[in-house]
Amino acid sequence: MPSTPRTLLDKIWDNHVVFTPPGELPLVYVDRHLVHEVTSPQAFEGLRLAGRRVRRPEATFATPDHNVPTSDRRLPIADPVSKQQIDTLRANCQEFGVRLFDLDDVDQGIVHVIGPELGITQPGMTIVCGDSHTATHGALGALAFGIGTSEVEHVLATQTLRQGKPKSLEVRVDGTLPPGVTAKDIVLYLIGKLSTEGGVGHVIEYTGECIRSLGMEQRMTVCNMSIEAGARAGMIAPDAVTFDYLRGRDYAPKDFDAAVAAWEKLPSDSGAVYDRVEIFRAADVVPQVTWGTNPAQVTGVDAVVPDAVSFADPNDRSSAARALEYMGLEGGTRIVDIPLDRVFIGSCTNSRIEDLRAAASVVRGYRVASTVRAMVVPGSGRVKRQAEQEGLDRVFREAGFDWREAGCSMCLGMNPDTLAPRERCASTSNRNFEGRQGKGGRTHLVSPAMAAAAAVSGHFVDIRDWQYK
Amino acid sequence: MQSFTTHSGIVAPLDRANVDTDQIIPKQFLKRIERTGFGQYLFFDWRFLPDGSANPEFELNQPPAAGASILLARRNFGCGSSREHAPWALADYGFRAVIAPTFADIFFNNCFQNGMVPIRLDEADVDELFRRATAAAAAGGQYSLRVDLQACTVSDDAGFTRSFAVDPFRRQCLLEGHDDIDLSLRHADKITAWEADRGLPALSG
Ligand code: SF4
Q1: Domain contains B203
Q2: Rounded average pLDDT over A376-401
Q3: Are A428 and A221 in contact, with CB atoms under 8 Å apart?
Q4: How far is the CA of A271 from the centre of ligand 1 (A)?
Q5: A229 and which of A194, A238, A305, B44 could share a cystine (Cβ 3.0–4.6 Å)?
């Protein structure tokens, strides 16, 4: 008898439910547990107090990224509290036998950049991390989601998670990507359409010609921001792009061909049914710029800032009014007329080598506007080395960008890289919440190319009109 | 874990949608390595003026919310960062329940780990609660609700009663104050068997 067609999510889920105790939530096995310094200290402390150990240290990987300074690594960390958190992670990893990519490790970086880059992330796996952007890893066909610190402790102790099965949401993007439009624009556009809570309770599987045509790193950009649509996770079925990306990476399976044969069975069967389906057209997407204080408050670069009164829903209207006030913007202002003080290229959304190449190609031969301070923060030590080999650091430096060490940096400003009140920033990161990049700071989310062009011009410009040198 | 059976308390109305965890507990307070002491920083950037004094405009600083232990908010509460510091801060400040039309998933799960009940009610019911809270405030008083996790109901003294849905396992854990890890470790043999079945090797690299 033919079995019922299953989705990618169904298959990974079925492969990982260890046991469902009667009347309880299933115990779902976790293949990889990624750990960083901010959401783990209390979990390790909990283990210690209860006299427990880490069940599978070899499936657990840690790196400091949120607090780390992005200036000279040889200097001591100035902020004593940041230092304590990083020291605590180091001590915990030592005590519990967890592999740590420490500050002086050449492979240190943002946890969601180094996971795929080292081949720790693989198709068909369940991956968790005490961090909402864990969805990034879904780009390789894994089921990857963020958890709270109590759950981090639970995974450390049991290598499982208590979870009900999420619903599936197919987000299909048909057609080919128009010139000048990038993965970041697609995902911002999708969030604008789905809303910040459109994906709550669901795992998004991105499908369609447009998604299939994206390279591995662009797929990561799309999956990364799934949480901004409220989704538990985002995923893309593995294919040749995925396998080519993984081949030869440090932690990739030794018998790679056997692994590929298993991974090829993962994509959703034809006829598999999703709980919900949303369909979009790539041709409708133009380069995006957020104007508000959540990522769904977004519009095309060729548009104007909306008036709060234009929103029919009362919640949306009051949110927009608050956002415009915080952002210091008036409805009707053309997006391209918004002047900028700062530009940040980095974060787990857009700090990989392809992102830096895209930004550098815009910047090449130009200088950063005199009114703008701009910085590039590579996502990992590897990305930084690769960029330096390609001479991208020189392109950025010669244009007047700051070229920094790897870390989260001004994505959330837990280290010294922050916006001052009222400073306006074009940022390639993922959240434009009030105060996210510094108290009172004003963040506009854009793609790396759009950020680079804004740095040169001092205001937003439509990248589709850019004169590349 | 702190158990939860019934709780009666004053309602703090926070008439905002999409309250994200960056607002609930701003990043500068995430550097602590303890679970406690976050209440003083709850909603820090909204609650305090730049000089450190209480911002009189902020809902939690106004008389109707004094001593509140039930937070009432609009949809998509707790979106954004997974930081459990957000429920730690709410619980440490004294909240035992949060009522909203919808919650972000990670925040919703995190609440249960901290003796706090996230309660989803219909948008219309939440509207009604805001109306009742506003009316009580206009009359110079406060508005109280009673949450009963046994019966899964929220009610006031003036005829408002609604039931809410909660996962039976999460509910049981809260009622009995179970430690999740203890419960799961009871099935350690199943986990070991599952691993052995798959011959999980030590990782290469
Ligand atoms: S880069 Fe930003 S979003 Fe990504 S993990 Fe770091 S802080 Fe979180």
Answers
A1: no
A2: 98
A3: no
A4: 37
A5: A194
pLDDT tens for A239-271 read 999 999 999 999 999 999 999 999 999 999 999
Q: Would you say residue B46 lies in a domain?
A: yes
User: Which residues from A are below 8 Å from B32, CB to CB?
Assistant: 81
Q: Touching check for B16 and chain A: CB below 8 Å?
A: yes
In this prediction, residue A261 carries a pLDDT of 98
Contact A58 B31 (CB under 8 A): no
Cross-sheet strand order for the sheet of A60-62: A99-100, A60-62, A32-35, A126-129, A143-146
Measured between alpha carbons, how far is A175 from B200 in angstroms, rounded to an integer? 41
Q: Which of B26, B45, B104 sits opposite A200 (nearest CB)?
A: B104
CA of B129 to the centre of ligand 1 (A): 36
Residue in B75, B110, B187 closest to A148 by CB:
B110
Task: State the Cα–Cα distance between residues B174 and A160, nearest whole angstrom.
Answer: 20
Q: Could you give the number of structural domains in chain B?
A: 1
Q: Residue A28: CA atoms inside 13 Å, Cβ hemisphere, count?
A: 23
Amino acid at B1: M
pLDDT band at residue B204 using 50, 70 and 90 as cut-offs = very low
In whole angstroms, what is the distance from residue A145 CA to residue B106 CA? 9
In whole angstroms, give the CA distance from residue B85 to residue A21: 30
- Provide φ and ψ at A231, rounded to 5°: -75, 150
A406 CB near ligand 1 (under 6 Å): no
Tokens of A110: 């943002």
- pLDDT on residue A29: 98
What φ, ψ does residue A402 adopt, rounded to 5°? -80, 135
Task: Count the alpha carbons within 13 Å of A464 in the hemisphere toward its beta carbon.
Answer: 15
Q: Is 60 exceeded by the pLDDT of residue A88?
A: yes
ipTM score for this prediction? 0.93
CA nearest to A80 within chain B: B31
Spatial contact of A440 and A325, defined as CB atoms under 8 Å apart: no
Residue A179's Cβ-count burial label (10 Å; 0-12, 13-18, 19+) is exposed
Decide: A412 in ligand 1 pocket, CB within 6 A: yes
What is the extent of the structural domain holding B20?
Answer: 6-197
Yes or no: say if A144 and A167 are a contact pair by the CB < 8 Å rule: no
pLDDT category, B162, cuts 50, 70, 90? very high
Name the token pair of A437.
């990049």
CB–CB of B76 and A230 under 8 A?
yes
CA A370 to CA A436: how far, in whole Å?
Answer: 25
Which is nearest to A150 in space by CA: B35, B30, B176, B120? B35
Whether residue B74 lies inside any domain: the answer is yes
Backbone angles phi, psi at A270, to 5 degrees: -70, 140
Is B188's Cβ below 8 Å from some Cβ in A? yes
Give the model's pLDDT for residue B201: 62
Could you say which of A50, A130, A319 has the minimum Cβ distance to residue B18? Answer: A319
Determine the Cα–Cα distance for residues B169 and A251; give it in Å rounded to an integer. Answer: 37
Measured CA to CA, the distance from residue A245 to residue A209 in angstroms comes to 19
Residue A16 and residue A159 in contact, taking contact as beta carbons nearer than 8 Å: no
Sorting pLDDT into bands at 50, 70 and 90, what band is B203? low
Give me B150's structure tokens. 């046994």
The CATH number given to whatever domain includes residue B165 is 3.20.19.10
In a domain, B202, yes or no: no
For residue range B25-43, what is the model confidence (pLDDT) as tens digits?
998 899 888 889 999 999 9
Taking contacts as CB-CB distances below 8 angstroms, the residues of chain B near A58 are 202-203
CA distance B200 to A31: 10
